């Protein structure tokens, strides 16, 4: 099975990329191209969510693509959150310590809660 | 026992020698003295005889002179005859009687008127008688006739006087007047008188002296009974012979004991002889006595000398006896005794001291020997243990691949001494590889055995680190070069057999090339490029040689103890013979080729004996196939990305078919992807189209992957670990993640590089594969 990318809720504030299949040396180019389009329109302080629940496999080439995206988001003071990585992907992430644990979420609910908290925090800061 | 001692023997010899000298010199002396003595006796006896003869002659002369003077006086005056005779008788006491007998009928008888005869009586008185008045006419008597006939006067034969009862002898002298015989004057002397004259001689005892007349009648004899008797005819003959000789001669007499010497001297004026008889015995008696006493004294002296000699020698030789006893003790092995102190400086003293020193040194030497023997025993028992340990270092002589009997191994090792420097070993390596080693340490014996033990242990320890035989040799060489002061070295042949495929990689460190033969292929040498022996050059490199074992192939490896085994004529066994014998064996069947060769070598070198260690290893590839449940994939493809991913797909399929769990499949895929993409992206060869070879095998409990890439050398193990900050986005350049993943996921990763390129051997443990029955 090859790689598929499904873009959901594309907005400058928050976008979600649904990865499916294998992200490896053969497919990372496709991801890079598609992700680039999304990343270009993201504004400062936005959030990029990578839904990994359907990603079966990732190799170092795929890791590099994710790293590139995270770098770009960081440059825009944004954040990249990972959602529901499968066993193999989680294992690879663990081995190379790819992302901080707090940025990986097991479910959409967990992610929404986290985002709400941040929103409230930011609002609180604004009120102060 | 006594005679066996040196002292008594010496005494006996001294005694016998002295006796011989003593007797011989005594005998010589006796002969010389005896001769002198005889000469002296001859002289003395002759002198005595002539002295006796003179004595008697002197006395006889008086008688004859008286008779002659009377005859001269009475002739002219016959009338005074009686008074003249009487006067003469009174004057000469020697005379026994005097007579003037006239021839009858002559004027003289007429004028005288008588023929007077005066004789001496026993009492000494003189008696006169007229012979004319005798009843028998005297002029007819023989004495008168003989007297008248001898005109110069002569002695008559002795006669017995009837009237006087005496034996007499008379001298007759003729009276003449004017040339005419008128009568005879007759003077008598008794034989008793003659006897007394004879006995007045001083004659030595035992010597006989006598006077004998021409007729052989004894006139006087120191044995009175013989007077008037006839002498023996032999004596008489001797006396007569003496007249013509020196006057003495030897005679053997019947009645005497032994020979006698007879000395005789004629008495002048008579026809008598005076004889002296000296027995031989008498002459020698004195000297014999002297010699006898000397002999007895000598014998006693000799006996004394012998005893003295014996005592002195015994005394002298007492230490020698002790030495002899000591030597007997030494001969029996008892050395713990003390010899008495000897303070002499002669040969015996020196001998005793030397002997005692010898005993002490012998004892010390024996102690030393015992110690050495114990040491030797300890050493040999240690050596036996060492042999056992060395034997234990070696795996068994037969090995059959337990998994699927793909190969079989036969081995033999025979040290020339108790321990040796040859070695062989084999063991399984991770990834279904089988390592086999054969080697030969230079030199023999204990140093070689120790070096062998070092080599075999190091080889086994390092084999897990080594990715290939040449790598193992390299590691071993570097290790053996360390602290190798004695420059010991070992030739080694090492092979890694892929137990699944039959591919074999070999490397040689100065070792003899192996021999290979197959089912229909005759035995031949497998030429191997070789590096230097291990332990000499630290930087040595070892070329690799790949052999693909075909089913039925056998590879024989051996040490030079095989080719250098010699027969009685010192002709070496040689490599050609190995080839020939293997050819024979090959035709014969498929038994143990090693045992076949060892028996043949033993038979060949039976007479000369084994001079070098012998090691033989034969590896036979049966190629039964993969074990049940195992699967395998082998591909070679150009190094391109899409080819890589095609291959990854096929690998995954293979693993899926082999019921490998999904997550392990993914791990394998990730590792293979990382490695192969690396090869494609970084390792492309500049000169040629490079290819990647992959072999994937699923065996019990493991997945084995071999990746070969003929591109640029690239060792993924050498790249350092990436710095992991916890966020991959922290890094400027993202690299090394793939290799990090590979290292984390593969259970084992071995990299080698040779002239064929990069070789990677991977192993994934999968304990959760469906378990086979282990018989547990």
UniProtKB/TrEMBL annotation, chain A:
Source species: Dyella acidisoli
Domain (STAS) ranges: 17-115
Pfam families membership: STAS
Signal peptide range: none
Name of this protein: Anti-sigma factor antagonist
Transmembrane segments: none
Automatic annotation (TrEMBL), chain B:
Keyword Nuclease: no
Gene3D superfamilies: 6.10.340.10, Histidine kinase-like ATPase, C-terminal domain, PAS domain, PPM-type phosphatase domain
Pfam families: dCache_1, HAMP, HATPase_c_2, SpoIIE
InterPro entries per the UniProt record, alphabetical: Bact_Sigma-Reg, dCache_1, HAMP_dom, HATPase_C_sf, HATPase_dom, PPM-type-like_dom_sf, PPM-type_phosphatase-like_dom
Membrane topology: Multi-pass membrane protein
Residue ranges of every copy of the HAMP domain listed in the record: 314-367
Protein keywords: Cell membrane, Hydrolase, Kinase, Membrane, Phosphoprotein, Transferase, Transmembrane, Transmembrane helix
Record's subcellular location: Cell membrane
Transmembrane segments: 12-33, 290-313
Main location: membrane
PANTHER family in alphabetical order: STAGE II SPORULATION PROTEIN E (PTHR43156:SF2), STAGE II SPORULATION PROTEIN E-RELATED (PTHR43156)
Protein name, per record: IcfG protein
Organismal lineage: Bacteria, Pseudomonadati, Pseudomonadota, Gammaproteobacteria, Lysobacterales
């Amino acid at each position: 099975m090859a790689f598929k990318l499904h873009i959901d809720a594309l907005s400058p504030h928050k976008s979600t990329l649904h990865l499916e299949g294998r992200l490896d040396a053969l497919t990372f180019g496709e991801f890079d191209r598609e992700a680039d389009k999304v990343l270009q329109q993201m504004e400062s302080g936005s959030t990029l969510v990578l839904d990994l629940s359907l990603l079966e496999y990732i190799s170092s080439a795929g890791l590099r693509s994710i790293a590139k995206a995270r770098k770009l988001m960081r440059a825009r003071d944004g954040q990249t959150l990972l959602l529901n990585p499968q066993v193999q992907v989680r294992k690879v992430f663990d081995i190379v310590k790819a992302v901080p644990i707090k940025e990986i979420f097991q479910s959409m609910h967990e992610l929404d809660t986290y985002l709400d908290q941040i929103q409230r925090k930011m609002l609180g800061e604004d009120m102060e | 026992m006594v005679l066996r001692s040196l002292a008594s023997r010496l005494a006996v010899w001294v005694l016998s020698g002295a006796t011989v000298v003593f007797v011989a010199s005594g005998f010589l002396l006796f002969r010389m003295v005896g001769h002198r003595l005889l000469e002296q006796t001859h002289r003395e006896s002759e002198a005595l005889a002539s002295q006796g003869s003179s004595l008697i002659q002197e006395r006889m002369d008086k008688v004859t002179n008286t008779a002659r003077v009377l005859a001269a006086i009475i002739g002219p005056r016959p009338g005074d005859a009686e008074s003249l005779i009487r006067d003469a008788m009174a004057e000469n006491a020697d005379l026994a009687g005097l007579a003037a007998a006239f021839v009858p009928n002559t004027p003289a008888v007429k004028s005288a008127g008588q023929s007077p005869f005066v004789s001496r009586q026993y009492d000494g008185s003189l008696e006169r008688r007229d012979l004319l008045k005798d009843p028998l006419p005297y002029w007819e008597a023989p004495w008168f006739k003989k007297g008248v006939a001898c005109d110069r006067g002569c002695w008559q034969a002795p006669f017995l006087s009837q009237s006087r009862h005496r034996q007499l002898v008379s001298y007759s002298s003729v009276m003449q007047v004017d040339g005419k015989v008128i009568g005879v004057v007759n003077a008598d002397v008794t034989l008793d008188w003659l006897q007394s004259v004879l006995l007045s001689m001083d004659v030595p005892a035992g010597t006989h002296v006598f006077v004998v007349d021409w007729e052989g009648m004894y006139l006087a004899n120191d044995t009175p009974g013989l007077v008037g008797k006839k002498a023996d005819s032999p004596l008489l003959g001797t006396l007569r012979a003496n007249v013509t000789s020196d006057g003495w001669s030897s005679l053997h007499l019947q009645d005497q004991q032994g020979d006698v010497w007879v000395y005789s001297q004629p008495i002048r004026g008579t026809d008598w002889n005076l004889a002296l008889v000296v027995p031989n015995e008498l002459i020698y008696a004195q000297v014999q006595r002297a010699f006898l006493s000397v002999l007895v004294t000598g014998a006693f002296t000799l006996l004394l000398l012998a005893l003295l000699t014996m005592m002195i020698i015994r005394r002298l030789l007492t230490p020698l006896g002790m030495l002899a006893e000591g030597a007997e003790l030494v001969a029996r092995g008892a050395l713990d005794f003390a010899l008495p102190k000897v303070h002499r400086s002669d040969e015996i003293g020196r001998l005793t001291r030397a002997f005692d020193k010898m005993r002490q040194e012998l004892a010390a030497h024996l102690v030393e020997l015992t110690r050495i023997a114990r040491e030797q025993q300890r050493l040999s028992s240690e050596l036996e243990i060492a042999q056992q340990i060395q034997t234990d270092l070696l795996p068994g002589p037969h090995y059959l691949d337990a998994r699927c009997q793909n190969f079989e191994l036969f081995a033999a090792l025979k040290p020339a001494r108790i321990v040796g420097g040859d070695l062989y070993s084999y063991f399984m390596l991770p990834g279904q590889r089988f390592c086999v080693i054969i080697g030969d340490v230079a030199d023999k014996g204990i140093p070689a055995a120790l070096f062998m033990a070092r080599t075999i242990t190091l080889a086994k320890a390092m084999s897990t680190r080594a990715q290939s035989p040449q790598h193992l040799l390299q590691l071993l060489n570097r290790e053996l070069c360390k602290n190798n002061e004695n420059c010991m070295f070992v030739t080694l042949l090492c092979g890694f057999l892929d137990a699944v495929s039959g591919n074999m990689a070999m490397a040689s460190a100065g070792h003899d090339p192996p021999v290979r033969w197959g089912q229909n292929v005759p035995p031949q040498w497998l030429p191997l490029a070789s590096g230097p022996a291990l332990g000499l050059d630290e930087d040595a490199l070892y070329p690799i040689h790949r052999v693909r074992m075909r089913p039925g192939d056998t590879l024989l490896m051996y040490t030079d103890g095989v080719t250098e085994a010699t027969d009685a004529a010192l002709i070496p066994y040689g490599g050609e013979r190995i080839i020939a014998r293997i050819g024979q064996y090959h035709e014969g069947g498929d038994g143990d080729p090693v045992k076949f060769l060892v028996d043949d070598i033993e038979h060949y070198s039976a007479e000369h004996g084994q001079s070098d260690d012998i090691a033989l290893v034969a590896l036979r590839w049966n190629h039964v196939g993969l074990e049940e449940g195992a699967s395998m994939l082998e591909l070679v493809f150009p190094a391109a990305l899409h080819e890589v991913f095609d291959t990854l797909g096929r690998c995954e399929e293979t693993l899926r078919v082999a019921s490998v769990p999904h997550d392990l499949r993914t791990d394998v895929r990730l590792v293979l992807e990382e490695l192969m993409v690396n090869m494609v992206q970084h390792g492309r060869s500049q000169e040629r189209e490079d290819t990647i070879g992959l072999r994937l095998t699923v065996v019990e409990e493991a997945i084995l992957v071999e990746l070969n890439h003929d591109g640029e050398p690239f060792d993924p193990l050498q790249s350092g670990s990436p710095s992991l900050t916890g966020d991959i986005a922290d890094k400027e350049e993202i690299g090394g993640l793939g290799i990090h993943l590979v290292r984390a996921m593969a259970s084992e990763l071995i990299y080698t590089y040779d002239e064929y390129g990069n070789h990677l051997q991977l192993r994934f443990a999968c304990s959760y594969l469906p378990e086979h029955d282990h018989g547990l």
